[in-house]
Amino acid sequence: MRRDFWIGSGHHLADRAEGGGLLASDDLLKAWLARPELVPPEAACAAERRLHAMLLADPRRAVAASEITAIADADARENFSVWLGFRDRLLRAPTIEAAYLDFARRGAGGVPVLFLQQLCQLVLRNALDGCEDPFTLRAAELFFRPQQATVHEGVLLLADAEIVEQRRDARQPGALSLLVQPAPSIVDLDVMTEDNAGLWWAQSDAHAMVLDFGLGRPGRDGLCRAMAAWIGHMLGHDVQIDPVAEMHDDAWRWFVGLDAEATRIGNALWRGETVEEADRARVLALFRLGFGAGAPVLARLAGRPVWMILARDGANRVVMKPQNLLVGLPLETAKVA
Questions:
Q1: Exposed, middle or buried by CB within 10 Å (0-12, 13-18, 19+), for 261?
Q2: Are 96 and 122 in contact (CB under 8 A)?
Q3: Domain boundaries defined on the chain
Q4: Which helix H or strand E contains 33, and what residues bound it?
């Protein structure tokens, strides 16, 4: 029996297409409508309450422009307009995977990052269904949960940024001293090890385990497996991804920045510019990607590695952009699950 995880992704609410992709069910749409951004507050006008109630009864119903303009609160009008645009693009696509790829290729059109992160988690949950390695699954959280990076006693650690912020706001002495002393007994956050990794299953939706992301550690290897599963599920191509300490390639021809900072730094290197030491220090990890047989790689890249860069920003946050793995690879064509 397969162990479940990321219940909050809503994967159990989605329907399944014949090819293994996900379909947006009414229950899944209703779950999104139940989010606090869309639930009318006590002070909401009658038009807002009426529209929300009608959508809960029939989440696929067409909504006239007049029903939006009738809402008194400007923020509520914008929220409903954005959600309806998101819903309509989702329903026009043959699968949720195809919808996500469409967002990646053509832009999100004002869809909030929160919705795209939820969509990413939902698709990734499908891609990793049956995975039994908690390190791979914890590392996969980088796809849709920003991380806070810190180095303690020479060990690179990644903790969920939202959880870190919550603990800081709580102002509980010792509740989160992650930047000072990340021992689980002090910070109330477990650093994943081979001995305690099994704890992840029971708290997969809590996002409270700290990832040891050092080179050669299971966390970094897990991200390699998660990225390969994502590419295989979404584009249908087998890839091998390995962590590396350095880029040994005097004639490197292609790279993928896994976040905005990594893209900026990689572009500077590509242009032959001098990269300041402060920027070099922001690079957290390097990876080498190779394609399996049959992948439609651009002719000039045949047999050449694709280098990938992961970096932190000035606030030590890691905000991964998984869409870059879908639109940034040197492929002639791509197919979608």
A1: buried
A2: yes
A3: 7-127, 133-337
A4: helix 26-33
